[in-house]
């Protein structure tokens, strides 16, 4: 089945040219994508839908909804989906690896510095203004995706309820599944059908006996295969696996999570930092491989199923509800970031200016917003 594409002519490229194009795009994104999954996906939408027209906005939204149903880092898995849509399974691998490599290298450098010198370099002034700028990027993405996801007033009500329950503390994953199954229930009520079919995420769990770097590999493989949610959820998993077993101190784990938060790319690059702490270079390699390998497998399994979901009316209703739920979660993340980030007049000023920029200059590449935020934030931090 041909993939839905956006309007407009697209230059025909060979497979090799497509792979090079994918590598260039996601290497760039992996280097500048600060701010967490919501920001990464916002930048991705700008690049692959608006600028390159690899797919329609509706299809991109379907990929977001489907990705929210499986474990692993959502933004990394979205890069794999985009690569698969553009160039098949080779594109999936190239996109995923290109997005991860910058984060892994940067985190690996910090791990070496931390182990060698016992502290982290002073980088805070350089990232002071990035998060406020990223809020503007997320707001624009939520606005554009929300317009496509809001197909009926019932979906609008589901989206509002999802925002409400997430604000009051319900797990975002549970809220998404509830939203999806509510949409499915509404479909069957409309069509007077009594049988409901369930759609469950594919998860793996379990532990095996191991030792040395193999222990690190299997520990992170297990975490990567069952992890839903944010970096804070990752913190809880790693605390249970590593701190409770006296493999890492709580302070070392908190330093590792901090590195994952303020470096570009997925927060799961924290695994590289921790692996290096545990067993040097080989530990870093094994931890990185373990945490991200399940995502490659999940996406390879899920992507071919999405066209079937789009053609099935019940699953289409489920996916529409998940899509509006995903937009609601993006809005909640944005509100949380705004509350935690805009703590002084400088950050409020950066947020206000970048919001004006993204809505006035809608075609401006999000990379310029990130660089502007970093530069402006650095200058204001000196005041």
Beginning-to-end CA distance, first to last residue: 57 Å
The helix-and-strand class reads mainly alpha
β-strand number: 0
Order of helices and strands: HHHHHHHHHHHHHHHH
- What is the CA-atom radius of gyration, in angstroms? 21 Å
Largest sheet: none
Helical stretch tally? 16
Low-pLDDT regions: 6-10, 193-211
Shape: globular
Mean pLDDT: 78
Please, how many domains?
1
Helix amount: over 70%
Strand content is: under 5%
Features:
mainly alpha; globular; 383 residues
Tell me what you see in this structure.
- This protein is mainly α.
- Helices cover 75% and strands 0% of the residues.
- The chain contains 16 helices and no strands.
- It has helices at residues 15-32, 37-51, 57-67, 74-117, 124-127, 130-149, 153-167, 172-191, 213-226, 231-243, 250-262, 270-302, 306-311, 313-341, 345-360, 366-381.
- Helix 2 (37-51) packs across helix 6 and helix 10 runs antiparallel to helix 11.
- Mean pLDDT is 78; it is low at 6-10 and 193-211.
């Amino acid at each position: 089945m041909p993939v839905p594409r956006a309007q407009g002519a697209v230059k025909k490229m060979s497979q090799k040219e497509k792979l090079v194009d994918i590598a260039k795009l996601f290497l760039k994104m992996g280097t500048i994508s600060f701010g967490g999954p919501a920001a990464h996906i916002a930048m991705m939408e700008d690049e692959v839908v608006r600028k390159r027209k690899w797919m329609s906005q509706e299809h991109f939204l379907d990929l977001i909804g489907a990705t929210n149903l499986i474990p692993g880092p959502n933004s990394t898995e979205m890069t794999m989906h985009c690569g698969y849509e553009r160039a098949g399974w080779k594109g999936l691998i190239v996109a995923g690896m290109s997005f991860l490599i910058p984060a892994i290298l940067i985190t690996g450098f910090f791990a070496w510095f931390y182990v060698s010198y016992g502290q982290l370099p002073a980088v805070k002034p350089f990232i002071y203004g990035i998060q406020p700028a990223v809020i503007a990027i997320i707001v624009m993405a939520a606005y554009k995706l929300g317009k496509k996801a809001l197909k009926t007033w019932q979906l609008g009500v589901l989206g509002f309820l999802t925002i409400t329950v997430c604000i009051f503390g319900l797990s975002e994953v549970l809220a998404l599944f509830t939203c999806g199954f509510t949409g499915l229930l509404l479909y069957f009520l409309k069509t007077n059908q009594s049988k409901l079919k369930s759609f469950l995420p594919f998860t793996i769990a379990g532990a095996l006996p191991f030792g040395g770097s193999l222990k690190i590999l299997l520990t992170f493989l297990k975490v990567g295969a069952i992890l839903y949610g944010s970096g804070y959820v990752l913190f809880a998993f790693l605390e249970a696996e590593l701190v409770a077993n006296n493999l890492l101190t709580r302070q070392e784990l908190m330093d590792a999570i901090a590195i994952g938060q303020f470096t570009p790319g997925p927060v799961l690059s924290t695994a590289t930092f921790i692996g290096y702490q545990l067993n040097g270079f080989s530990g870093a390699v094994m931890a990185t491989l373990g945490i991200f390998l399940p995502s490659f497998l999940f996406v390879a399994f899920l992507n071919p199923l999405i066209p079937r979901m789009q053609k099935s009316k019940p699953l289409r209703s489920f996916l529409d509800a998940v899509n509006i739920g995903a937009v609601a979660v993006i809005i909640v993340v944005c509100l949380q970031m705004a509350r935690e980030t805009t703590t002084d007049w400088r950050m409020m000023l950066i947020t206000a200016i970048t919001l004006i920029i993204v809505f006035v200059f809608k075609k401006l590449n999000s990379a310029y917003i990130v660089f502007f935020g970093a530069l402006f934030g650095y200058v204001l931090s000196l005041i």
